[in-house]
Amino acid sequence: MSREEDDAVALVRVYCGLASADPADRPASAGSTLTSAVVDDAGRLLHVCEISDDAAGYAQLVALLVERSGGPSGAAIAADSDDHTVTSLLSAAGRPLAIADDDSVDDFAERFADDDSLEEMQSPPAERRAVGLARALQAGALSAVTLPAPRDLAGYKQVLSAHAALASGRHSAAVALREVLRELYPAALRAYPDPAEPVSLAVLDALPEPGMLGGTVARGREVSVAADAIAAHLAADGVADAEEINEAVTALRVAISETPRRAAVNRALTSAVAETVRQAVASVRACDAGCEALVSALSSRVSTPVQAPGRRAAARRGESVGELTGLAGTNAGLAGTNAGLAGTNAGLAGLAGTNAGLRSVRPAPAGAEPAPAIGRRSRPEPVPGNVPLASPRPLGPPPVAPAPVTPPPVAPAPMTPAAMAGPPASTLPTRGEPLPSRIDGPTNRPVSAPPPPPPGITPIAPA
What we know:
Blueprint: E1 14-20, E2 33-39, E3 45-52, H1 55-69, E4 75-79, H2 85-92, E5 96-99, H3 102-111, H4 118-121, H5 125-139, E6 145-146, H6 157-184, H7 186-191, H8 198-206, H9 220-236, H10 242-258, H11 270-301, H12 311-317, H13 321-340, H14 346-359
Region (Disordered): 361-463
Protein name: Transposase
Organism: Micromonospora ureilytica
């Protein structure tokens, strides 16, 4: 994988991809590891490394993101699974995270690969998938969001926040140490490209002033004896092996002889320079000690989940998915049968055994305990339709309504007697004969005489 951008300065926005190697691709003695890749806004590869899938690997990833982006919160992260310890800790810390399935990860590895880079095309599959995930974030094919923290890690939010603060402080202390050495001890920067490494810090703490290894030719033998004594002392303290410490001391001695001494830093300031360098080194070491204490606390409470090989690993070994699922169904049936002999919860235990069988390819030993999983969800393989599922059984009898405490209410008796004493009629009443009219007819009315004719008109009598 290309390393041409390893020495670039820290960027404002970076993208990180995390990919796991299949168990068939690594020896059985090797632990669970993840490959991390960091790219910038233009998709250029900045860093690729392997980290362990535990609390120490999480601390290494946080330090890498702080170094490249100025803080772990300024980097979006994409992973191929949320069942890893590192991804669970990232979710618990509130970091933006994107999860992609196996098919999408393989597609991103092919789509966002740099065809012009022969070294990148010949890199291991895990590195190509990690780079593909990082560039998928950079291109917008994936979107990182804040995922809910796992239930068993929700109480470690404060610990993870404190670790992030110490990681940022350690980066600032390392920058301050570099600037102090640039002004007061330039030979140290020539000897050590990264003066904040543990071996470099130990040598600078033992030799904080260039005059301790410099001098005339007459003092050359004395300087050599002093350098050997310091190297032996550091090796006895367990900082590193004797050969590595001798190389570090020799590199500093050669750099001091090749670097001209500045006139401003005279012998009157020797003690002040030595004390300043020691305090700058101590500030970096203090942050390292705090981070180590928090990581040790997390390691004692967080266990690494056991990853079962899935379809991708089976395809690379030449096995078929049907064989894997058949073994899974067999394991599930055995688990359900054993649970049925235990008690009334046999049905639910059988279903749990079925789900567990999807995660294991080979039957587990009889006395082995199941490994605790830290991820929020598992990724089971599909089960064919011919695998029978254990039928659930009721845990207890069905619920029965309790007896009433008081008798049901009764309507009160009427206050007035009924209008009819007899029994109520079952049919509608019929209409009887009409009553005689009380109004006289027209024959009974009196007849009045016609009015007299008007004057001058003689009435005509009827014939």
